[in-house]
Amino acid sequence: MSTELDVSERRELRRKARAATLEALRALGGEASRRAISEHALSAGGFTARELNAPPPAVAASKYPRLVDHDLSWTLTNLKREGLVENPRWSTWTLTGVACKATPSLAAEPVDEARLAALSSMPYWLYLRTPEWRRTRAAALVRAGHRCSLDGTHVKSLEVHHRSYERLGKELESDLTVLCRSCHERVHATPQRVGGGRRSLWFLLARRWSRQQQA
Length: 215
Ligand SMILES: [Zn+2]
Ligand SMILES: [Zn+2]
Fold this sequence. Notes:
Blueprint: H1 7-27, E1 31-32, H2 34-44, H3 49-53, H4 67-81, E2 85-89, E3 92-95, H5 97-100, H6 113-121, H7 124-127, H8 131-143, E4 158-162, E5 176-180, H9 181-189, H10 196-214
Antiparallel strand pairs: 1-3, 2-3, 4-5
Helix pairs in contact: 1-2, 1-4, 2-4
This protein binds zinc ion (2 copies).
Residues 148, 150-151, 154, 179-180, 183 line the site of one zinc ion (ZN).
């Protein structure tokens, strides 16, 4: 029997899919194929019969037999965007360092002086493409519990905002705030301090560029 889930059931399924995917990757030694991750997650993820039987979204029905298959697949894509998993080779998915640790710390991988000088002097849009920023960003998301800091019910399209641009490459936890896209845009639309306005335009251009690269 196959019944549609309501909105809160769907949210709960996505939460379980995410936890089960991370747990599967840890259990499989930090690296596995999409299929192996999915099989492990389905058997150990604690999904209810109702969740396992829910039909996929109509637009994705040709690609996924069930909603849970759809959600598990998207979980990997989203975790990759957040810097928690990488997809270094075809069908190979690995946990990044930050996702392996129970309590991620910004100081996990110290950056040497020469690299730090390069990070702090490169254009901001280029800095956003560096592995150092991806790790720092992922750690900030984990610390924030993957929620917007202005409203904890905002859990989609999360971005990590720089409250200060003075320590690029060695940010303090207090330099960063996790915001959803729309709250982030509001923050930049509101002049907070000297220089904020100039940064806003710069930020929007950098983000547009970085989205184009990901598209
Ligand atoms: Zn920002
Ligand atoms: Zn928000």
